[in-house]
Write a structure and sequence with these properties.
It comes from Ekhidna lutea. Belongs to the ParB family. It holds the Pfam family ParB_N. There is one protein chain. With 296 residues, the protein is α+β, with helices and mostly antiparallel strands. It has three domains: 112 residues, Conserved hypothetical protein from pyrococcus furiosus pfu- 392566-001, ParB domain, CATH 3.90.1530.10; 63 residues, Arc Repressor Mutant, subunit A (Orthogonal Bundle), CATH 1.10.10; 46 residues, no CATH class. Helices cover 49% and strands 15% of the residues. The protein has 13 helices and ten strands. The strands form three sheets. A six-stranded mixed sheet has the order 1-4-8-6-7-5. Strand 2 and strand 3 form a beta hairpin. Helix 2 crosses helix 3, helix 5 packs across helix 7 and helix 9 runs parallel beside helix 11. The longest helix has 19 residues.
Length: 296
């Protein structure tokens, strides 16, 4: 067996370790012999191209500088993940911040897991790695979930297994994308909490959603207060939609007319004894039948 041309590092990094674990089989990298899956190799930074499916493109410059300084002192604790395009060409799967920080730190090589993956696997691994970041906001997570479902052809149960969440959690995040844009932006920018958003999701009336949202921003309402407002609104709507008690004489008359016309007759009457009688029909033939009864 040909000796690998990649320098090996001892020990394992953290982060995507569990995601990248595989069987004891070996992956072939063109011209380089066999490299065990999960092994860490030291590869040249100049041989790595960026990930075209990188879900996150904005990186805080100050944070990158801090990471670069840390790398100068401590080195890379968590290897990046790449796929081999050829013996000396690699494409980044995950670890964009670490790669950029290493460039700032002036490093020539970087420790990496080398994977063999097709384009869909690349996208899936990049999205899952992105979701596992601690500083993602709820909208970024929801959008990543949506992309995994749409572009990686996953079902919600499969997605939950991939990201270590139950289906209800995944569903709650996806529902955030149905909120009006103003609310989504506030959630993305940290002006609205996930608890507030969950309370707002249960409101079907968009104008009422926005009204409550504006009250949250203006008056700094707690999640509990928002939930109380939503419950109060629901009770009011239920009361308004509850049918009024029908007068017994009106109900008796409805029954007689329904029997006479062979259709369910509705009679509405107000407190001033004004109202209307509705005679429904199901077809032209049914209408003609009713007209004959009325002798019209």
């Amino acid at each position: 067996m040909a000796e690998s041309k990649f320098k090996k590092r001892s020990g394992l990094g953290r982060g995507l370790g569990a995601l990248l674990e595989d069987s004891g089989e070996k992956e072939k990298i063109s011209g380089s012999g066999a490299t065990p899956k999960g092994a860490i190799n030291e590869i040249e930074i100049s041989q790595i191209e960026t990930n075209p499916w990188q879900p996150r493109s904005d990186f805080d410059e100050d944070a990158l500088n801090d990471l670069a300084e840390s790398i100068k002192v401590q080195g890379i604790i968590q290897p990046i993940t790449v796929r081999a395009l050829s013996e000396k060409e690699f494409q980044l799967i995950s670890g964009e911040r670490r790669l950029q920080a290493c460039k700032k730190a002036g490093l020539k090589t970087i420790p990496a897991y080398i994977r063999i993956a097709d384009d869909q696997q690349m996208l899936e691994m990049a999205l899952i790695e992105n979701i596992q970041r601690e500083n993602l906001n709820a909208i970024e997570i929801a959008l990543s979930y949506q992309r995994l479902l749409a572009e990686c052809d996953l079902k919600q149960e499969e997605l939950g297994d991939r990201v270590g969440k139950n289906r209800s959690t995944v569903t709650n995040y996806l529902r955030l994308l149905k909120l009006p844009p103003d609310i989504q932006i506030a959630l993305r920018d940290g002006r609205l909490s996930m608890g507030h958003a969950r309370a707002l999701i249960s409101i079907e009336d968009v104008s009422f959603q926005l009204d409550i949202f504006n009250q949250i921003i203006k008056n700094d309402l707690s999640v509990r207060k928002v939930e109380e407002l939503v419950r109060s609104k629901g009770k009011k709507e239920e009361k308004e939609s509850k049918p009024s008690e029908i007068d017994p004489e009106i109900r008796k008359l409805q029954g007689k007319l329904s029997t006479h016309f062979g259709s369910k007759i509705a009679i509405k009457s107000n407190e001033k004894n004004k109202g209307e009688i509705k005679i429904p029909f199901a077809s032209t033939e049914d209408l003609n039948r009713i007209l004959e009864i009325l002798d019209i």
